[in-house]
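Bit of a strange request maybe. I'm writing a small parser for structure token strings and I need a real example to test against, not something I typed by hand. Could someone generate the tokens for this chain?
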Amino acid sequence: MPMPSWTERITKGIFLTVICALVVLPFVGVISTSLATPDEVNRAGGFVMFPTHGIDLSAYRSIFAGGTVTQALLVSGFITVVGTGIALTLTCTLGWALSRRATLGNKPLLMLVLISLLFNPGLIPTYLVVQQFGLLDSLWSVIIPTSVSAFNVIVVRAYFTGLPAEIMDAARIDGASEWKMFRHIGLPLSKAVIAVIGLFYGVGYWNSFLNAMLYINDASKWPLQLVLRTYVVNGVELGGQDLGVGAEAVPPQTTIQMAILMISVLPILCVYPFIQRHFAKGVLTGAVKG
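Reply from user aminoacidic:
Good idea to test on real output. This should exercise your parser:
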């Protein structure tokens, strides 16, 4: 295969540079605006690409002063940690049960999981079920309805099915129960797929918006994404009473909005590098061996 000419290489380099700039520059603008001084933000008309008058952390100090955003951040943290833990527990145990052919009701249960991939229950029936269980205006209304994903169950089941049968037979001969094999063999050998599924669930819970908007009316229980929509997308201004600071200490609204946006993105950016090395292995192995 002939090597590309220098003209083609330059063209590809320019094209990739433009694409990277289109992706990176808006993100740089959000960071810069959240760190810019109030005078610079007001003088720039609300958006600063590169701060030239130093860094000002007043927007972040206002956000973490104990007001609405701080409360929403704690709510989102609770939903993400508890929801991901519950979801991983249910998904892994169900995936293990479906991977064991001797499990009672294995095939009918697997068929139900597969059918749920094809048919969505709909918004109104789901709302009525949540209402009947008394979960309205509760954080559990955001956690429980999405605690099991059929797609993730199938991926985990495929991974468990691909584990060496010789190890399971040896453990069974030594008298290990299914629960012990699951805890001491299945889980340790499946760290890659569990890390990937945990990332899927964690991102889903951290970004939970629709369920929170439908089921939670109490503003004190809003997750961060609802606060982001209210004060950033809809443009509602955050006052001193909302931030927990005095009215004279409130930074420009644009600075606060960009700071909220950064806080909503930063946790996922911090977690992803630690799981990225498992990502391809976990997804591909679970999918191919199904």
